[in-house]
Design goal:
34 helices; single chain; about 45% helix; Cytochrome Bc1 Complex, Chain A, domain 1; about 900 residues; 6-stranded mixed sheet; alpha+beta; disordered N terminus
Length: about 900
């Protein structure tokens, strides 16, 4: 098998050996990514990676909220929605995306708007995507009728954000920190501008910014470079270069001359305080040191803020975040605390810790730890071709896509002195926006330097070696099964190995432990969750920080958790680090130390999170429906959790309870492990046996069953004061399990209704009536028991909740009466099949799935059989199945929101 470097070199030679399509010139090439330029100004980045059978097209326009004028706030984001509407040449773009099995989305930020679609790799899919993107670049209708329906959807998205006090506080602090620059205006925009934007202004904004000379297209994945360049020339190359000239933005935020403050007062159960500082642009030489400074202060559990506030029980959490932007941006630090904790004490400790960093510079250990964690994230991200397009768009919006690689190299060189210098330069009281004003006789102001010229920074930049590629792997169930190796350890643990060559030598593992019985676990739901939450917080050999440090050195992600009936562990790393990472996972599972301080911290965090959520509309509505559908006693582990009850149970659980739970139930006699990726099977088999082979379960294990029980339907409205967004939740019990012959058809019914945010319900409620930003349905079916539930949900404005309910019921009645059409079924089957294919290319998901299959005695042949059943379904069979199990009147419904304010009653 040829290496990634060799394959990339051959590809470059192949493209270079022939003449480029007319109108295209070749530019810089860094680490396997090659830049091209069209005569009309379009920038093209090609990143071939044949290790997965997918291709991603990422389209970025260099326009965001920074470019919006008075009365235009949110316009860039509104256009993000509008270009999914018809063009002069095509109708339903979302339907076309779904027909091609695409995973797609769009996002808007301060400096750019981004769209992507990831599909199964094929000439047809890629050519279609390029044609579609070229079409909507200049031919979108931007019609008044489309704006009328989509405006309410975008407004609902705005209202969704308004439900979160922490989010609103961040937005208001940002607006207070900036007097003139548009970074003080968040991309979602103001509600009035969203509601009243004139169609002619929106169309003019589109015609100005959505042009080839203001765009970057990234193609990443498995594709032919020469063909792709030809298709790009044939589609985008025909778009003329616009005659208009885009003026650079020129507003410069003046130096802040004193501390600013903002106070938010609204309904809520937790408190928070935030401190924000102006810092240079993401391309500035200081920025890497600022990132390290942010991590030194804001990481958990090593950060100074965590140690000062959380460990001293002044707050439940502490964090820091920096925003790398094209022009000077911000860094902010926040803490959350319960009502019973003192906001003044937390604020005092927060500011004291931030101010002290200038006088007590970070140690070498703090800096090295932060750098290791940041570099790990970059390296792991670069191993995933599917994510690189989005990453490149962020850095392209800052001046040049190669800044991504320059940032990584500069981060390696950051020193203690650099971090101390930027702390002293920017973390000044006069440069801070927080909750109060303090006059100062001699202001000490931070001067924010301008963004440097990216071309100058990158003049001699070459980049590092290209990451090694993997093999071209067919993710069909048959091929996965052909690669599969199975064995059982002496203690009964089942192990499944799927070796294959992957990009960067990546490898993923999934471990699942099962334990307990219905009666032995009675009343232990919270205890089991508490035990699982403590596992990563320290072992008998390592502290929580040492675990994190070791994983950062290994460039590995290990997540271990659990609940009342089992525990799970996942490993995401590279071949050379897999043994070390798996040893840590085994140590965490088998030898937790349960530190008392960590346990108390977890209790405070858990209570705060539940207190924060118990007044949220989605929690209120889902609790009512789930408790009604699953009517088990409170001490039954199958009972739907109630936030108030959970809070009392968390308060009551003790560290001794947790230790006893682990000692009694944990073991690997009833466990599965799956490993997928680049590894030596013989070495892994030996390692797994050493780590888990002698770990036996002492308590009996019997799978907890979930049996169908009919319940009468309910319909309730729940008040959620001061919430701008409402939540609609509907559910019904079905007598169905995965092993039933009807299951594949019923699972496909849920997909047709609204699986993956597409289908009949989203089309009716979101697309046609514009009542909701998010509409979805899902089928939760046990593997071997009959207690399934069919669920549907939607978010909306409180004033629209009855319209959402009426639309839901009416559409369900139409489906049950008229059925799904044959064309509809065929189109969704093709889309569903491509989604299954893409799912099997995600190694972490595949490892979890294989482990689950092993627990059920299934091979990948089961997946192939289920897929074949779905693909053979006719519209008549689908309609027969939904009519057999579903009646609109059987749905139990709950709606939660501020209905009193909206003047809505049932």
């Amino acid at each position: 098998m040829m290496s990634r470097c060799v394959l990339s070199l051959l590809a470059v030679v192949a493209v270079s050996a022939q003449s480029l399509p007319p109108g295209i010139t070749k530019g810089a090439a860094v680490e396997g990514i090659t830049e091209y330029k069209l005569n009309n100004g379009l920038q093209v980045l090609l990143f071939p990676d044949a290790s997965k059978p997918t291709v991603t097209v990422n389209m970025t326009y260099l326009v965001g909220s920074r470019h919006e004028s008075y009365g235009e706030t949110g316009m860039a984001h509104l256009l993000e929605h509008m270009v999914f509407k018809p063009t002069s040449k095509r109708g339903d773009i979302k339907k076309e995306l779904n027909d091609h099995g695409a995973q797609y989305n769009g996002s808007t930020a301060w400096d750019r708007t981004n769209y992507f679609e990831q599909m199964q790799a094929s000439d047809e899919n890629l050519k279609w995507a390029l044609e579609m993107e070229a079409d909507r670049m200049v031919n979108s209708n931007i019609a008044k009728s489309d704006l009328d329906s989509e405006m309410t959807v975008v407004r609902n998205e705005f209202e969704m954000g308004e439900n979160s006090p922490n989010r609103v506080l961040l937005f208001q602090t940002l607006a207070t920190a900036y007097l003139w620059h548009n970074y003080g205006k968040v991309p979602i925009g103001s509600q009035s501008d969203i509601e009243y934007v004139p169609i002619d202004r929106l169309k003019a904004f589109y015609q100005k910014w959505y042009q080839p000379d203001n765009a970057v297209i990234v193609v990443a994945g498995k594709f032919d470079e020469a063909k792709t360049l030809g298709w790009i020339a044939d589609t985008f190359g025909k778009i003329p270069k616009p005659t208009r000239v885009i003026s650079k933005t020129y507003t410069i935020e003046p130096t802040q001359q004193g501390e600013r403050s903002v106070t938010l007062r609204r309904v809520g159960d937790t408190q928070s305080v935030l401190a924000m500082y102006h810092v240079p642009a993401g391309s500035h030489p200081d920025y890497e040191a600022i990132q390290v400074l942010t991590a030194v202060l804001g990481e958990t559990p090593s950060g100074r803020l965590y140690k000062a506030l959380v460990e001293n029980k002044l707050a439940t959490s502490a964090s820091g975040e920096d925003l790398p932007l094209r022009e000077p941006g911000v860094v902010f630090f926040s803490v959350n605390l319960r009502k019973e904790q003192s906001l003044d004490a937390a604020k005092e400790s927060l500011l004291k810790t931030l101010d002290a960093i200038s006088k007590e510079p970070p140690s070498k250990e703090e800096v090295d730890r932060a750098k290791a964690r940041l570099l790990k994230q970059i390296d792991l991200s670069l191993n995933n071709a599917e994510n690189i397009g989005v990453e490149l768009s962020e850095w392209a919006s800052m001046g040049d896509w190669r800044l991504l690689f320059l940032q990584r190299d500069k981060l390696k060189a950051v020193t203690q002195a650099d971090v101390a210098r930027v702390a002293k330069a920017y973390l000044k009281p006069s440069n801070r926006t927080i909750g109060q004003f303090i006059p100062e006789a001699t202001p000490d102001r931070a001067e924010i330097p301008a963004a440097p010229d990216a071309a100058t920074l990158l003049k001699d930049f070459k980049g590092s070696a290209v990451v090694a590629s993997g093999e071209s792997f067919d993710p069909s169930p048959a091929n996965i099964e052909a690669r599969t190796q199975r064995f059982t350890l002496p203690n009964g643990m089942k192990v499944v190995l799927v070796p294959k060559k992957t990009r960067g030598g990546s490898v993923n593992a999934s471990i699942a432990l099962h334990f307990g019985e219905l009666e032995s676990l009675r009343g232990l739901s919270v205890t089991g969750s508490a035990t699982g939450a403590q596992l990563m917080r320290g072992t008998t050999q390592k502290t929580r920080q040492q675990i994190q440090d070791e994983l950062d050195k290994l460039k590995a992600r290990v997540n271990v958790g659990g609940g009342a009936t089992g525990a799970t562990a996942s490993v995401d790393t590279v071949r050379d680090s897999f043994a070390g990472a798996l040893k840590i996972a085994a140590e965490v599972l088998r030898q937790p130390s349960f530190p008392e301080r960590e346990f108390e911290t977890w209790k405070q965090q858990s209570i705060a999170n539940m207190e924060r959520g118990r007044n949220e509309p989605q929690v209120l509505a889902s609790v009512v429906v789930n408790k009604h559908l699953q009517s088990y006693p409170p001490d039954d582990i199958r009972a739907a959790p109630d936030p108030n009850d959970q809070i009392e149970r968390v308060k009551a659980v003790t560290l001794d309870d947790v230790k006893k739970f682990h000692a009694k139930f944990f073991g690997a006699s009833h466990a599965e492990m799956a490993v997928v990726g680049d590894f030596d099977p013989a070495e892994v088999k030996k390692l797994v046996n050493e780590l888990f082979g002698n770990w036996k379960s002492t308590a009996p294990y019997t799978r907890v069953t979930k049996i169908y029980a009919p319940v009468p339907p309910i319909n309730k409205m729940i008040e959620a004061p001061d919430k701008a967004n409402a939540f609609f939740f509907a559910g019904m019990n079905l007598k169905l399990k995965e092993e039933d012959p009807d299951y594949p058809a019923m699972d496909f019914v849920a997909y047709l209704l609204g699986g993956g945010l597409k289908g009949r319900l989203p089309n009716r409620i979101r697309e046609k009536e514009g009542l909701s930003y998010a509409v979805q349905s899902m089928l939760n079916a046990p593997d071997k028991d009959t207690g399934s539930t069919l669920l549907a949900l939607a978010i909306c404005a409180p004033a629209n909740v009855l319209k959402v309910e009426a639309a839901f019921k009416d559409e369900m009645d139409k489906i049950l009466k008229d059925g799904f059409t044959a064309d509809e079924v065929d189109k969704f089957k093709a889309s569903w099949q491509q989604e299954q294919q893409i799912f099997r290319t995600q190694d972490a998901q595949l490892a979890r799935h294989i482990a689950q299959n092993e627990a059920l005695g299934r091979t990948m042949a089961y997946d192939a059989k289920q897929e074949a059943v779905v693909m053979a379904l006719t519209a008549a069979q689908v309609n027969e199945t939904i009519r057999k199990y579903v009646k609109t009147a059987d749905f139990s419904i709950a709606k939660a929101g501020d209905f009193k304010k909206a003047g809505i009653t049932q």
